[in-house]
Amino acid sequence: MATRRIETMEKNRAALIAAARKAFAEKGYAAASMDDLTAAAGLTRGALYHNFGDKRGLFAAVVSQIDTEMATRAKDIGAREATGWNALLAEAEAYIEMALNPEVRRIVLLDGPAVLGDPSQWPSQDTCLQVTLTAVEQLIAEGVMKPVDPEAAARLLSGAALNAALWIAASEDPPAVLPRAVDTFRHLATGLLADPT
Amino acid sequence: MATRRIETMEKNRAALIAAARKAFAEKGYAAASMDDLTAAAGLTRGALYHNFGDKRGLFAAVVSQIDTEMATRAKDIGAREATGWNALLAEAEAYIEMALNPEVRRIVLLDGPAVLGDPSQWPSQDTCLQVTLTAVEQLIAEGVMKPVDPEAAARLLSGAALNAALWIAASEDPPAVLPRAVDTFRHLATGLLADPT
DNA sequence: ATTTTCACATACGCTGCGTATTTCGATTGA
DNA sequence: TCAATCGAAATACGCAGCGTATGTGAAAAT
After folding, report:
1. CA A14 to CA B164: how far, in whole Å?
2. Do B109 and A113 touch (CB under 8 A)?
3. Which of A17, A70, A163, B134 has the most beta carbons within 10 angstroms of its beta carbon?
4. Structure confidence by residue, pLDDT tens digits, A95-110
């Protein structure tokens, strides 16, 4: 029973994405060679252009995969908290910590915007932002947060968090800097509370 | 009286930076051709590699120029305010508005991090961040702001502001979205006030 | 006046993307 | 079972663009 066509195709797609993820993370988007990358996956550029259209398409697929993983993880961590507000804080802190991963930093934070444009219009929809937005909308509805613009609040919070992550990662001693950033983030976020305690 | 060597060299450097600024803004870093760019400046790639080393070096020079302009403008705007706190807010809002300029957005916000890495370690030192940091340090010393980590606060504030700008610019009706972002930013920032009123 | 310097131009090679064409195994139908 | 078809991936090709090595001519130095 020969392996089915669709099976192998999906396997090849997955292999390409995996190899691309590694190459983009290690060398950056521009320096990642498609020839090397596909060869590492046991394929050629032919498979790549057939499946993803072009280099950018492959990159978008990689970003989408990472974005999904990040959003899932953040949601899980947020779900452990008792209150919606603590969940929002926990999610934001989770993003900061995830951004310490070199893969996330290089692909999503540095190359992502340059290659795909503003995150809010990524093909992957930027699931991370959606998660934050949902949490914010609910907190505003509950009266926990001030009645600010939900989209603006979500953008500002995630922007602050991810930017903090870049700073931490670039610092000499990330583990030492992390708590400073997280602490400051908590203070900042209270500015959006209806009744800061 | 033949034109002096240093004179023409400086003129050429300026011409290259000007042409590069235009090309990088219009086409993005990757798509900007050095041949076209130098020709537009009435020179060849020879001048470029002699003056800036490589494409990245020229880009760094452009970023530095824009960064300086932005910081100067922000400081000016901040200086008009009566209190340090209002100055900080005004500076942040100025950054948001400046980031609506396509040139700033494409070069500094999108391509900058991808090409030069995290802004805090740019050759230009990221003067914008320095301005914010200085303001924050003073406000903490005066007791206006909570005694948080100044560097963290500056990074979070500027990160939130610049990210908001990206969002605004990508939206369909930027002028309408701008006040929503600015308003939310003001609320958020109060989280760092020692005595929120 | 001759030599030296150096800012820039010219010429070259190499890498790497994208496309057009080809191949060959898998699928389908009789 | 075999022939016909399909299409996923391989192969071959062209071209753009970066960086470097070398050349050149005008300003500076002696």
Report:
1. 34
2. yes
3. A163
4. 999 999 999 999 999 9
* A60 CB below 7 A from strand C atoms: no
Contact B166 A29 (CB under 8 A): no
Cβ–Cβ below 8 Å for A157 and B160? yes
Percent of chain A with pLDDT over 90: 86
What pLDDT does residue B2 have? 53
pLDDT in tens, A6-34: 888 899 999 999 999 999 999 999 999 99
Question: Stated in angstroms, how far is B33 CA from D24 C1'?
Answer: 25
| pLDDT of the residue at B45 | 96
B81 Cα distance to chain centroid: 21
Gap from B5 CA to chain A (nearest CA, Å): 37
DSSP sequence for A151-165 = HHHHHHHHHHHHHHH
Tell me B195's DSSP state: S
- Run of H or E residues at A8: helix A5-27
CATH of domain A1-53: 1.10.10
What's domain B62-192's superfamily in CATH? Tetracycline Repressor, domain 2 (1.10.357.10)
